[in-house]
């Protein structure tokens, strides 16, 4: 795992939370990736529910150990739509880290 991938997602957190069950970890990460594909297009100021999407991503990200993503989402909730590019970037970094992790599994 690269340093940037490790920074984007703390996989040891998720592995510990799932008691090391790699099958469950894989399922959770696959679900996150599927959801990320749905969330990404909604991360624009034109989307009326962008705040709801950001809030959802915040919880899901923190749930898998993507704390940087969760933190950026919290800032976007507080600071507004100007933070959406940072949310999109952090989501892309988390997705890339997950894809790399899954490729190594």
Walk me through this protein's architecture:
Helix content is 76%, strand content 0%. With 105 residues, the chain is mainly α. The chain has a single domain, classed as Four Helix Bundle (Hemerythrin (Met), subunit A). Helix 3 packs antiparallel against helix 4 and helix 5 runs antiparallel to helix 6. 28% of the residues are buried. The N terminus is likely disordered.
Overall form = elongated
CATH topology (fold) name: Four Helix Bundle (Hemerythrin (Met), subunit A)
The total of beta strands comes to 0
Largest sheet composition = none
Low-confidence residue ranges: 1-5
What count of structural domains?
Answer: 1
**CATH class identity:** Mainly Alpha
Name given to the CATH architecture: Up-down Bundle
* Number of distinct helices: 6
Percent of residues in beta strands? under 5%
- Quote the distance from N terminus to C terminus: 11 Å
CATH superfamily assignment?
A: HPT domain
Q: Could you tell me the radius of gyration in angstroms?
A: 13 Å
Q: Structural class, judged by helices and strands? A: mainly alpha
Mean pLDDT: 92
Order of helices and strands: HHHHHH
Helix content class? over 70%
Search tags:
single chain; 105 residues; mainly alpha; Four Helix Bundle (Hemerythrin (Met), subunit A); 6 helices; 76% helix; disordered N terminus
Concise overview:
The chain has 105 residues and is mainly α. The protein has 6 helices and no strands.
